[in-house]
Specification:
- The protein is an alpha+beta fold.
- It has 10 helices and 23 strands.
- It has a 7-stranded mixed β-sheet. It has a 6-stranded antiparallel β-sheet with strand order 7-6-5-2-9-10, with no helix packed on it.
- The chain starts with 18 loop residues before the first helix and ends in an 11-residue tail after the last strand.
């Protein structure tokens, strides 16, 4: 088995914000974000749980016995199997006593078949303007295995999972304040990182454990944006191509490793009228927009499509408008339709996951893979990382 050798930077720095302060309080991750449920069934699997209600004696949720959690009248409600129930402003469920048992529980959304997921640690529930918020109270390290399994997929090389662990951890630490105004740290869908509960995958667990507390930073020890995507199509995008802002560690890189992977190429088409209407809406003259012959070739990544002098349309905007798999495409127009032939899947910035998987199979180490996709970065323990000053 390939072992990764980390060169950890242990510089003495004046921290703008320390990870240890945040780690002491844990994190809250919103669950079933996209589904917006109004009820959930909680079942303790490892250890009995106490249901703590402000100003009341706690209720006991015995392992194996289902508990109904729901939203009603602007509050959250709980009903146990024995019929005990009440409404409150908030509820906290965590392992009872001090047995040392790591809590495990499942959540199931009654109206959604196949929605059962297992989580560790605690659960906090409250109502926010009629929205039922279900929040997993856990730690970054306990959260990571579920993220790595969801974002990386099953059956990958351990060295790839190590890379994904470091990037997912970096993203989590950098974005701990992303949803603070909503009362939690992160959500569980791709707006933050996919998180479908805990993972019992031993290879993933080993990857998370062997990279514990390691994140990606610049040479100044400031944590970086650790972007990743499915497939770059043979060339990653710079950050300014996808998001306007230029970041020194996110430059375009030629990637020969992903070009044989399943997401390396794609095709799509749209009706000619739909295409011409779009062009006109972006300032293209109707005469040019309606012409039958139009070609645009990206043999290397380009930032803009220029259909006529004086008009530049970001290729990222075209991707968004037509739901394309990437902004790395060529197009040809006819009287009936516009045909796209594209490469890659995703925004293209940072780590190409399928390229990284191929590199891991080829024998590259975790360090080498990260250094290939990210320029001039270091791996650093969270206790020594710095955060950029907040944007005012």
């Amino acid at each position: 088995m390939i072992r990764v050798s980390f060169k950890i930077v242990l510089a003495v720095t004046v921290l703008l914000n320390t990870c240890s302060d945040v780690a002491a309080t844990g994190i809250r991750v919103r669950l079933f974000t996209a589904m917006k449920p109004q009820a959930a069934i909680f079942t303790a699997r490892a250890g009995d749980y106490e249901i703590e209600i402000p100003g009341r004696e706690p209720l006991l949720a015995v392992a194996g016995e289902p508990v109904l959690l729901f939203s009603a009248e602007g509050k959250v409600g709980v009903t146990t199997r024995h019929g005990r129930g009440l409404l409150a402003d908030s509820l906290l469920l965590r392992v009872a006593g001090s047995s040392g048992v790591e809590g495990r529980f499942t959540l199931y959304i009654p109206a959604m078949a196949g929605s059962e997921r297992e989580y560790s640690d605690g659960l906090f529930c409250r109502s926010d303007d009629g929205i039922f918020l279900i929040l997993n109270e856990t730690t970054v390290e306990n959260y990571l295995a579920g993220v790595v399994r969801a974002e990386g997929g099953p059956g990958r090389p351990v060295e790839f999972y190590r890379v994904q662990s470091i990037l997912a951890r970096t993203f989590a630490w950098q974005n701990l304040g992303k949803h603070l105004s909503d009362g939690y740290n992160l959500c569980d869908d791709v707006h933050c990182q996919a998180y479908h509960g805990t993972s019992d995958d031993k290879t993933v667990a080993e990857a998370v454990r062997s990279t514990e507390e390691i994140v990606v930073a610049g040479r100044d020890s400031v944590i970086v944006l650790a972007a990743f995507h499915s497939n770059c199509g043979g060339q990653t995008a710079s950050s300014e191509e996808a998001w306007v802002t230029a970041l020194p560690h996110l430059k375009s890189v030629r990637d020969p490793h992903c070009t044989s992977s399943r997401n390396a190429t794609w095709k799509a088409s749209v009706p000619a009228k739909t295409w011409s209407d779009f062009l006109v809406s972006r300032g293209v003259s109707s005469q040019v927009a309606s012409q039958g012959e139009m070609k645009f070739i990206q043999d290397t990544r380009k930032q803009y499509f220029v259909p006529e002098a004086g008009v530049s349309i970001p290729v990222a905007l075209i991707r968004s408008e037509f739901g394309l798999r990437s902004a790395y495409f060529s197009l040809s127009a006819s009287a009936d339709s516009v045909r796209f032939e594209g490469r890659g899947y995703g925004h293209g910035v940072g780590l190409c996951q399928e390229g990284a998987m191929a590199m891991a199979l080829e024998g590259y180490t975790c360090n080498e893979i990260i250094a290939f996709y990210f320029q001039d970065v270091i791996l650093v323990k969270t206790e020594f990382v710095k955060f950029p000053p907040p944007v005012k």
